[in-house]
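Is this the right way to post structure tokens for a design question? Let me know if I should format differently. Anyway, here goes:
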């Protein structure tokens, strides 16, 4: 059971990290969304 939560936590963190990279990489395409204010 613990390994399941560990896997979900790792997957979630990786997905959020990848989304943060993609959103900041496409910052010029979406000026209305400023992810720098979230960090």
């Amino acid at each position: 059971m613990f390994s399941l939560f560990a896997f979900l936590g790792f997957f979630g963190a990786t997905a959020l990290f990848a989304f943060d990279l993609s959103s900041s990489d496409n910052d010029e395409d979406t000026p209305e969304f400023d992810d720098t204010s979230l960090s």
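Format looks fine. Someone answered above. Worth noting: The chain is about 60% helix and 0% strand. The chain has a mean pLDDT of 73.
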